[in-house]
Amino acid sequence: MTSVGGGQPLRGRAAECETLRGVVADARSGISRTLVLRGEAGVGKTALLEYAVRQASSFRLAQVSGVESEMELAFAGLQQLCAPLLGHIDELPEPQRNALSVAFGLGVGPTPDRFLVGLAVLSLMAAAADDRPLMCVIDDAQWLDQVSVQTLGFVARRMLAEPAAMIFGVRDGVEDFLTGLPELRVSGLPDSDARVLLESVMFGGIDPRVRDRIVAETRGNPLALLEVPRTMSAAEMAGGFRPAAVRPPADRVESGFVERIKALPHDTRRLVLAAAAEPVGDAALFLRAAEHLGISADALIPAEQAGIIEFGPRMRFHHPLVRSAAYRAADIAERRDIHRALAHATDSTIDPDRRAWHAAHATAGPDDAVAKELEASAWRAQTRGGIAAAATFLERAAILTADPELRGSRAIAAAQTKRDAAEPQTAYELLALAELSPLTALQQAEIGRLRAQMEFTRSRSGAGDAPQVDQAAARLLKAATRLESLHDELAREAYVEAFAAAMYASRNQPDALVRVATAARNAVDRVTDLRHPIDLLLSGMAHRVTGGLAAGTRQLRAALETWCTPAGSDDVQALRWMALAYPVVHESAAGEMWDDDLLDRMSSAMVQRARAAGALALLPPAIAFRAGVYVLEGEFAAATALMEEADAISVAIGHQPMKYHKVELAAWQGDLAVASGLIEAGTAEASAKGEGRLAGVIGYTAAILYNGLGRYEAALAAATEACGFDDLGFYGWCLLELAEAAAHTGDREALAMAVRRLEEGAGVSGTDWGLGALASARAMLADGDEADALFTESVERLGRTRVRSQLARAHLRYGEWLRRQKRRGAAREHLGTAHEMFTGFGARAFAERARRELIGTGEKVRKQAISSGDEMTSQEAQIAQLARDGLTNQEIGAQLFISTHTVEWHLRKVFVKLGISSRRQLRTVSWPH
After folding, report:
1. Where in this chain does the record put each HTH luxR-type domain (predicted)?
2. pLDDT tens digit sequence for 124-161
3. DSSP string covering 906-917, please?
């Protein structure tokens, strides 16, 4: 047996201790490990964490314990955890070092994205683990501030090759951001061990029947068992006289602590309450507060003798439940008195935010001075990236504001930050508070926009009570229209939001997009000097919807070219505009242009900007956009790697994984089982949400899948349904699928319709991609020499583009036509090229279709399994490519949001798999990618 704090033996935990020893052993050998201990309060998580720390005696230790009253202070928990590691901060790349300094209040600068802070913490831990292994222990993680636990969850998911371990203790029944990490469920002790533990703390006898009933009622909860001597009389333990009603162990144990604290002398209770209300544990601060209360520090001695608290350089409670019990044992007046003393004792220069927070809790009614301090704290928190903390400060500031007009303004600001912090219910309540105040017309319009934004977010969440996407889109349009006469710039921003929402709604409200485009066009046409990319984008898309592609080409090209130029627009503004448009409007605009070079540069610029800023909320959609471009370019392995990365980041930040381009890739790969599953799930989701754009994507990708498989009737049906609405960005691509399916089924009418519509879009693009696609569709409608010339034109034009997947399709169509013209030699040339390209991409179904056609020409072609990267994983291939391009390990880590150690670990495996020994040799070998 091993002993833990308080001298009590750690019993009945053989399996748990073995798991923890394994975690420590792996970390010692250089393999990162993360473990979440999850269980009810008092079940022994803290004791197990202490056991893990003892096993890691040679490790560098960083630890923190979450405290309920600290939950609103941004980065408070993270800063305490990282304090012992900050000697390595100078080893971080400058952007990470600056982000961490601002987040921790050590420096000033622009607001850092909180996940750039996460990358900085990951790098900091890796640097700290260089000389000896690192053990990070986070107890009561459910009480850490939101941004700290999100950041630590992100770091835990990215740790791989560091000699480090992260172990969390989390209470059951509390939402957290650690779901999906390796877990160890901690339950009560087995009955035999529970009986031994109970008997070990009894000073007198205990009736066996009473003992067994206590063991059963506590379900083996160790803390509940240890508290029995303090909560039961000798008579109860000897004779079994005990109330029948039993509360859950955590409640009973905490109630026992409450009774023990209430039994303390009055002044002692007040000092215990002061220690509970100030979770930093700073003894000097505690003594100043005690002095302000007029109480000698000696009054704390009875609490120390009762085993409630330890007084030293840091104040330490016997157990986290004692802290919460101490706070709950006091009435509201006592709490206010203590918070007032703590506010007085806290230095307003060194720690103005905690001072403001204590002052707020000390205030019974409106207090404009305290509200002003809270507002200042909110902006400081937001500057450090603490949106959740800023929202809470502003909420409290609004409630404490006496001036009605100022209260309304602060309530609106608080609602907006609560929305950004993913707390919509509180945001709605704050908007209701704002509406009780006298508001200007602009403020009323801003409230309308906020409500519409939140309704649209709910509509895309799929929640049962959420409005349909088309209803939410209509509300955004109404909000934009209302703003138009009040604030031109805000109105145009709202129109972009309405435009994006209408694009998602599409076919469920067919005229919604036209209504938005018409209103947006009227608004943006009044701007005499269109310079901002967002205004140019809005103008171009509005003219595209109302007047066709030719009407919006000039503005769209100007907007996208500016976006692709690093010096063309301010990066902060560019990121904000990306978020504003979700960024579906940007992606669709690029697709409408039929310009492969612009599409490639646009997708690359989006990813680069999001990576450089560490904007992880924007990074998954930007990466998915880039992955979709890779699919068009025939780089399926690279697309797969990016989609895996986007999913990993989405999981880390609590977002739904991206799906649009994933189903497109599956369709191109031709795996019927995988693609059909994604198509079926997407169809159900589109129906449930009323999300017409998703239905359009599903139809388009189903047409690709079935054309590849040679199931042309099914492809025609899917493409016909998808082309029933002009989905911006991929409608023209879907017309090409419709044309191919119609040509194979003999539906000349559908083929002719597809050609006419392609002429209106691709035909006016003036690009090789657009004109090559149109030539291919026209060739399928033509005969004889005209068809031959058009097929030739299509291959030549697409051969000058990046869209190699469509070039392979053009070769396939030409080869099939040549075989039916009995020109077998020429057919073999084009079919062979198509087969080779599809095989290289990993487009199994299209490769098999080309193989069948080749056999029809008399060519013998062996059926081959398509490789997706030999033995290298997609992430290894991605890292190898970046290393080949000359990026350092640190630069690769920053791009992929992994540590330098992890890059090195992957590269070592790459070298073995490729049979090389250095980075320089990467340029001399090749691998499927």
Report:
1. 865-929
2. 999 999 889 999 999 988 888 878 888 898 888 888 87
3. HHHHHHHHHT--
